[in-house]
């Protein structure tokens, strides 16, 4: 059975109290899914310790990583700090590219940093050019990371791309990086998730808004494997 990934990206949301409430509700409603489904939750950095207090029914991911090692970089969180805490790290989300000036070069540096530390990079792309750049810059990337394809118009808009369109794009991406698991992101909901999961070139979804509500996220995870 093909492995699939459901990645929840909380973005810049939730107080400590709200994160605790999310955790309590989710733990009381843990979706029953097969072992071939990996659920990943990516909260903000300051929430990560909360999820280390007890075993969670999901893997932890960070939303970003510094391109540098530990040192004089005020405000940064490095891969070395996150090693042992997160299994995954998102890199190059379109919001980071648009609001924080992250270029393809920066993305590649961050991916290399994650790989060198054994943290699995989930590289976010919104077009084929970004995929080509990644492929040219990092040998064997397809064997060591995940790709989260998110068309800009679908993020946070409530209007997802169609599963068929997405599959066509994923097919093109696979012509560049054959083995990479590709996730689709952009307005994924419990209602539409299944259509994406069943596409032959897709291996999962990235979920922003719908991951903030624990009941909705639980329902979405369940729906992904039904
Ligand atoms: P959305 O966000 O599900 O709220 O559209 C997706 C993302 O940006 O990862």
Written overview of the protein:
- The chain has a single domain, classed as TIM Barrel.
- The chain is globular and about 45 Å long.
- It is α/β, with parallel strands linked by helices and 226 residues long.
- It is 34% helix and 17% strand.
- The two termini are 14 Å apart.
- Helix 1 packs across helix 8.
- It has an eight-stranded parallel β-barrel, surrounded by four helices.
- The longest helix has 14 residues, at 104-117.
- It contains eight helices and eight strands.
- Residues 9, 150, 155-156, 185-188, 206-210 line the site of 2-phosphoglycolic acid.
In short:
The chain has helices at 16-27, 79-82, 94-99, 104-117, 128-137, 163-176, 193-197, 214-224; strands at 4-9, 37-42, 59-62, 88-91, 120-125, 146-149, 182-185, 204-207.
């Amino acid at each position: 059975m093909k492995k699939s990934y459901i990645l929840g990206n909380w973005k810049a949301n939730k107080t400590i109290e709200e994160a605790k409430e999310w955790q309590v509700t989710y733990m009381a409603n843990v979706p029953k899914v097969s072992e071939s489904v990996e659920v990943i939750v990516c909260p903000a950095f300051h929430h990560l310790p909360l999820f280390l207090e007890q075993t969670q029914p999901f893997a932890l991911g960070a939303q970003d990583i510094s391109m540098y090692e530990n040192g004089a970089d005020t405000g940064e969180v490095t891969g070395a700090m996150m090693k042992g805490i997160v299994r995954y790290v998102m890199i190059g989300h379109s919001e980071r590219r648009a609001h924080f000036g992250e270029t393809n070069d920066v993305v590649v540096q961050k991916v290399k940093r994650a790989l060198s530390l054994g943290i699995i990079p989930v590289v976010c792309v919104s077009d084929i050019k970004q995929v080509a750049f990644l492929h040219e810059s990092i040998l064997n990337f397809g064997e060591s990371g995940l790709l989260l394809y998110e068309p800009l118009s679908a993020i946070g808009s409530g209007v997802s791309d169609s599963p068929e369109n997405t599959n066509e794009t994923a097919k093109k991406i696979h012509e560049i990086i054959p083995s990479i698991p590709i996730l689709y992101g952009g307005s994924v909901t419990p209602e539409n998730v299944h259509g994406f999961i069943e596409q032959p070139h897709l291996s999962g979804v990235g979920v922003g808004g719908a991951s903030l509500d624990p009941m909705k996220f639980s329902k979405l995870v369940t729906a992904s494997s039904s």
